[in-house]
Design brief:
Elements: E1 10-18, E2 21-27, E3 32-38, H1 41-51, E4 56-59, H2 72-83, H3 105-114, E5 123-124, H4 125-131, H5 138-147, E6 159-160, H6 173-186
Parallel strand pairs: 1-4, 5-6
Antiparallel strand pairs: 1-2, 2-3
Helix pairs in contact: 3-5, 4-5
Amino acid sequence: MRTMAVKEEQFFYVIEQTSLGHCLLLASDKGLRNVSFADDMSALQQELHLTLPSAALKNVGQYQEGSTIGPYSAWFDCLLDYFSEKGNSRDSSIQHLPLDIQGTIFQRQVWQALKTIPYGQTQTYSELAERVGRPNAVRAVANACGANRLAVLIPCHRIVRKGGNLGGYRWGIERKKQLLNRELSYA
């Protein structure tokens, strides 16, 4: 009897300085899996190794120009351009990037609803809970927003508390303010 060899999934990543701080971009063959921000590179390196402790990780930033690394470099370049201060700040350039979303069914429902909030607009946690058909699950919706690993691509920064208070943000309230102000100025 033959045993089939299981192909180890490879992940490609880069950590770059952006206008929003250091940014970790991580992709699988299926799409982008993680877009995270931190004030220093070491926090993102630690996050990367805690998230995928035994995965085959390839740093796209260490490849020589002209190397064959699949579509990852183009995906990363698109996002890094979006995050740059001189880049196109409309999200149309990043809307169609493939995503490798990891989460529960409920989290995926919340994240899909987040993706329908128009650029430059916000909604409350309560409004989002109603949109996913769970009006009494405001805390669960907030937890799903907090579990999002795809900053900006799943725009949880567009969710605010009742009365307009910004609430929390996985990557820091200052980044949330910066993202919302940027969107308002380009809307």
